[in-house]
């Protein structure tokens, strides 16, 4: 994940959020590339955004929603996940030319809204 794209994703999420959120953009290992915490965002949203991005970056799913649905169907698989993984909505993998290059985690609004902010920012910043 290039820093310029990561910063553009952060800017897009912050600009389009209807309320205070945290956004975390990670590389393929789930490590920080860029992040922001909007004024008024609850403190726990920082860690939630990080965990969402980490999960989407490191799992085989495209979103935390997809991973939750997969895990719901198989309790044994769910028990074997990385303990930092989360199933909260708002984590979305970023792909370029079919390759996963990182992920975005958004937290602070309802899960569907967090996910939509991430998806839209990824689409709008695609080259």
From TrEMBL:
InterPro entries with a match to the protein in the record: GlcG_carb_metab_protein, PduO/GlcC-like, PduO/GlcC-like_sf
Pfam families the UniProt entry points to: HbpS-like
Source species: Solirubrobacter phytolaccae
Highest taxon of source: Bacteria
This protein's name: Heme-binding protein
